[in-house]
């Protein structure tokens, strides 16, 4: 009998530890603060919690911010259709062999060669000054599809971020669901521990009365006192686990409160459908598959954009400039200021066709992106296989959890009946305190295991819904 009681005690300790682990671990300071449930904790249903999380969860807020940033980046290539305006100012000292006006090329202003030519049979190494002030504008006329390809690549990246955000929403819904049912399970464990402590106190009082009447020994009373202390400790730990689960629930949902409770209202569960339907959903429409498909689309769009960089470019250019050179021209008059004052005005308008006949860097980038595209295709196929396996695993886990819960329900009924019989025998003086302790531990253990089993069923169903969820 003593061996049986020790075994039951060890099993009860293991089950209580499992129940306490339903809520994620917190620091010792947080655990001390959560020793008692905060007063006035708001209770919400699972549907309300998910709706709140979609508005407040920090991960979803960050995901939406990334989507908006990607959409803003997608508008950048289109800006190439807008005119660009640039300016330059130059002061140069150089020799003037065959040129009396020297300017440096720059990417902001397109300037033609304008200037008198100094012709001398002998090279002249004397430096002269040249100045330039110019303002120019450039307008894209036709790009042969280059900008459109760049825009498509940026939009594909934005679609990838949107798909990731949808997956993040499903992940948050899964975490909220797990936290919700963890609170429910922790409350059931706390209730079982509280009821066990109440019954243990009643058994101790009965044992004390029997000892005072001379019907039982002090050993029975000491045993009963030890059981009361053990159940009181279990009650305190269960209440702490409940408070911690409520705190985690609030953090996952993203509400400003320190704790959030799970209401007892049951949301109507939708039928999940047959396994084949779930497998098809996971293989074609799940968040993981949709993200992998979006990665393929991004790779294809980037390959097309890289290839489009090798297409011609047609644009309009115009500029207004003032310039001067300090050297004496071969004909005409000398400009005052010795080249330090840009006094000679000019303007120009032109249409330029730029054709990149061959650029090895662009060609190498295009070929590399084609290889990336093939890798993304292979990843997509692998994701389909893995997601189908995940759905199948989650489905079998749900089936097993439901079967286990049915067995746990029967165990609870049997344990309660056994406890009632042991209690009746103890009150009639036919049973011993060890029998009653054994029956009491078995009953609480069964009730806690049923609470954990209910949590496992809810978590398995949530995991299956997440694995087969379609991104809309």
From TrEMBL:
Top-level lineage group: Bacteria
Residues spanning the membrane: none
Keyword Membrane: yes
Gene3D superfamilies in UniProt: Outer membrane efflux proteins (OEP)
Example of a GO cellular component annotation carried by this entry: efflux pump complex
A Pfam family matched in the record: OEP
KW Transmembrane helix (keyword) present: no
InterPro entries to which the protein is assigned, alphabetical: OMP_efflux, TolC-like
Keywords assigned: Cell outer membrane, Membrane, Signal, Transmembrane, Transmembrane beta strand, Transport
GO molecular function terms listed in the Swiss-Prot or TrEMBL record: efflux transmembrane transporter activity; porin activity
Signal sequence interval, chain numbering: 1-28
Compartment annotation: Cell outer membrane
PANTHER family per UniProt: OUTER MEMBRANE PROTEIN TOLC
Stated family: Belongs to the outer membrane factor (OMF) (TC 1.B.17) family.
Identification of the protein by name: TolC family protein
Species assigned in the record: Polyangium spumosum
């Amino acid at each position: 009998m003593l061996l049986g009681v020790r075994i039951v005690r060890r099993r009860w300790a293991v089950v209580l530890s499992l129940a306490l682990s339903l809520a994620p671990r917190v620091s010792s300071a947080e655990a001390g603060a959560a020793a008692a449930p905060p007063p006035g904790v708001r209770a919400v249903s699972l549907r309300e919690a998910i709706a709140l999380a979609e508005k407040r969860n920090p991960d979803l807020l960050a995901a939406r911010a990334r989507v908006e940033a990607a959409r803003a980046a997608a508008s950048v290539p289109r800006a190439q259709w807008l005119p660009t305006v640039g300016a330059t100012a130059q002061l140069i000292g150089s020799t003037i062999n065959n040129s009396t006006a020297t300017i440096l090329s720059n990417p902001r202003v397109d300037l033609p060669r304008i200037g008198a030519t100094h012709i001398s049979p002998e090279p002249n190494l004397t430096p002269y000054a040249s100045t330039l002030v110019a303002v120019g504008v450039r307008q894209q006329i036709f790009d042969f599809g280059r900008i459109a390809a760049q825009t498509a690549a940026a939009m594909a990246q934005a679609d990838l971020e949107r798909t990731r955000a949808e997956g993040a929403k499903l992940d948050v819904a899964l975490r909220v669901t797990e936290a919700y049912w963890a609170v429910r399970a922790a409350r059931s464990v706390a209730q079982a521990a509280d009821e066990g402590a109440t019954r243990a106190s009643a058994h101790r009082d009965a044992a004390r009365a029997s000892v005072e009447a001379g019907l039982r020994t002090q050993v029975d009373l000491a045993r009963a006192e030890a059981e009361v202390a053990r159940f009181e400790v279990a009650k305190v730990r269960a209440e702490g686990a409940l408070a911690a689960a409520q705190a985690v629930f609030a953090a996952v949902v993203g509400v400003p409160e320190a704790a959030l409770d799970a209401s007892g209202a049951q949301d109507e569960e939708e039928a999940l459908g047959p396994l084949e339907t779930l497998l098809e959903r996971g293989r074609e429409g799940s968040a993981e598959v949709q993200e992998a498909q979006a990665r393929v689309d991004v790779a294809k769009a980037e390959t097309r954009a890289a290839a489009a960089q090798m297409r011609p470019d047609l644009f309009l250019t115009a500029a207004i400039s003032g310039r001067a050179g300090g050297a004496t021209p071969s004909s005409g008059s000398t400009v005052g200021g010795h080249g330090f004052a840009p006094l000679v005005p000019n303007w120009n308008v032109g249409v330029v066709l730029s054709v990149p006949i061959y650029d090895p860097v662009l060609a190498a980038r295009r070929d590399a992106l084609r290889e990336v595209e093939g890798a993304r295709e292979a990843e997509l196929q692998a994701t389909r296989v893995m997601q189908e396996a995940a759905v199948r695993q989650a489905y079998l886990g749900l089936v097993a959890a439901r079967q286990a819960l049915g067995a746990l329900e029967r165990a609870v009924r049997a344990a309660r009946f056994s406890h009632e019989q042991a209690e009746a025998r103890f009150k009639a003086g036919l049973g011993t305190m060890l029998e009653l302790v054994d029956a009491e531990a078995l009953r609480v253990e069964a009730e806690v295991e049923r609470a954990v089993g209910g949590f496992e069923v809810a978590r398995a169903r949530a995991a299956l819904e997440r694995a087969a969820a379609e991104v809309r």
